[in-house]
Amino acid sequence: MDTMEVFKTRRGKYCVSFRGYTYTERSRGNGNIYWRCRNRKTCSGTLVTRATSVSGSYPEPGEKIPHSHPPNVDAVAVARVQSVINERARSELTSVPDIYKQEQMRLLLENESAAAVLPTFRSMASGAYRSRKKSLPTQLTRLNDTAADQHFQMSGKLWGGRFTGDTDPVMEKFNASIEFDKRMWKADIVGSQAYVKAICKVGLVTEEERDLIDDGLTKVAQEWEKGEFTIQPGDEDIHTANERRLKEYIGSVAGKLHTGRSRNDQCATDMRLWLRDSLECMYPMVKNLINVFIQRAREEVDVLMPGYTHMQRAQPIRWSHWLLSHATALQRDAQRLKELQARVNVMPLGGGALAGNPFNVDREFLAKELRFASPAPNSLDGTSGRDFVAEFLFWASLTMVHLSKVSEDLILYCSKEFGFVKLADAYSTGSSLMPQKKNADSLELIRGKTGRVFGKCSGFLMTMKGLPSTYNKDLQEDKEAMFDSYDTLTGVIQVATGVISTLTINPETMRAALSPDMLSTDLAYYLVRKGVPFREAHGLSGECVALAEQKTCSLTDLTLKDLQTIHPLFEEDVVGVWDYENSVEQYTSSGGTSKQCVLTQVEQLEQWITSH
Q: Which domains are seen in the chain, by residue range?
């Protein structure tokens, strides 16, 4: 059954919309309601419904006289919006221009063609204000003052006083950032609560007004926390949305909150607050991932595997040595993160648009309230500087490089060709066609998302590269890059932690991949220990490899007599060179792959984890 909607015209008459036509009530009789097409000058279309009241349901509606024109869905949508505007004007305290802009934006999102034919505010204003005058009590008649509405609320903008014309709806959507910067709601409210205390200290608001604003902001925060905050179409950004809602709670005193403050210093402060607190959450995640590497390295210290250069087998190493190489790289990332946090923790608030604050606001007090290390020393730089975002994006990119390297190694190691490790089912997927497949999608996604973070970093650097001094709207692009990179890296660290902690190693396969030719460097070291210069020893070892290839045997199958044909210093003890355990144990300098060196690295990293 088709849906029938009921609404009122600005003159209070009931209308219905049905199948793309709009009807007004004409008469009643015999339990029927007869509706006439609103386009009554050219159309006699009539609809009959069975109902006893307009507010009831309408079973079995039917057309008594057909229409002489096709249905007009846009006209129905416009009529409905006009009705909603009048009804909201009767029942809400929101300014009439704001209501119009909100409904206009809502219609634009739902039906662009209908929005294009919506009457202008001027043509609809008188009916809406009449609706308001009939319903509002006397003490609220100030809201009926069109001039007052237009002064602050005509456009619903914090900057609307300068403008007399409306913003194009397409520009409204293009300009808005609320859909992504709304996640800074908490930082925005905390910053405002600190700022109202600061302006109270210099007498710009009374203590009663300060408390009223602070309580109102707390109520707005509670709405966000409960998921009850409703973003209105006119909410350009999180700052506009929160101030709009605050005004709805406490009235015109909300307008004092922004005294001496610009969205330039407000936004920069919100971003630094958000990023500082978010990085405080990320730091322990990075440490936890490092710790997973460390614990596996301690537990699996006796496992040997081939080490690779140029993707060719190079020298025997311990599996733990490979694990600690990545733990060490991530340790540097954690250290850089701490350094980054210190540079993020500088407060732009009080810098105004660019020139500073003219009301002697105590910025040291503000910094203490918001847990910043210090105020930004220069208002121009503080309000427009985004190097903290660029530095975070670079840090995220470099961290992703290290995690991508881990992923690339493990993608190879878990393939049938290597078989060194096996990923847990929890971090693998299969094929929709080939049942035997077990794909390392977790690792491939980490590798792929690295390019995503790179793109955000390089893109934002390109945005900043062409900007003159002070704030420019181009910097609105900073938030999406920052949020997306943070979200991406957070997910990657969590998945990487899961992968490393649950993968299974195949020690026998790793050891079987060791080959005698990987000991040719050890053969050169043997000669060096006999007094042969390294360059000469390197060449002699190469001759041994060539001889083995000539005799189609492995290096270890060469007899002592064969080796002595190359150099007389080869003796019976050369047999010790062919032991892989001896090979790794010779690397006893700090940072090497001998067991004691690896355990020392483990202890050093464990101490760092404990102390940081």
A: 5-94 (no CATH), 177-259 (1.10.275.10), 264-353+371-512 (1.20.200.10), 516-611 (1.10.40.30)
